[in-house]
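User: I'm curious whether this sequence folds into something compact or stays loose and floppy. Could you predict its structure so I can see for myself?
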Amino acid sequence: MSSALNQTTRRTVVSGVGKTLSAAGVALIASGVSTATYAATTKETSQDVEILNAAIALEHEGIAAYQIAATSGLLQPAVLDIGVTFQGHHKGHRDALVNAVQTLGGTPTEENSLEEYIQALNAASLKTQEDVLRLALGLERGAANAYLGLIPALGTEFHQVAAQMAGDEAFHVAILANALGEPIPKEALMFG
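Assistant: Here's the prediction. I'll summarize afterward.
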């Protein structure tokens, strides 16, 4: 992908890029990299931080959703075990994303309060295990598609982690859809 196209893609994913100097930019200046190269790299780094922070926000929401589900009293023990396992996956995703943001010299986005997630997810409407599973399925489908969309928007060093997370989310979708008795999709290319 050309640099100009890559920057255009990044701009479509993230708007309002900050003008702070990243640690990577400081290192480039110290190494004698040209101003033009530095400016392009700093802008890309800043955009990567914003994109990664948006992904952290999604992971915070996923962690909270599984916490809400786990404490709802609506889940059978086997389903609860699956939810807790998936919550662990999301915590691993969050930790990897936080590490990436910090590596780029950024500040990771903070999580909201559980009460804010309860409101945002309309948890009061959850009355049955099926309601909980449908909520989780919708969030996981959205996450799989979001990570697939991030792959071309991120700097090359983060493609693999976005792809790995998209794979995890697609796995979660398959398990949840199966638990709900949804038929196997007939069409290929279900995500993206």
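Summary: Helices lie at 3-13, 23-30, 35-70, 77-103, 114-120, 129-150, 159-179. Residues 102 and 108 are 7 Å apart (CA to CA).
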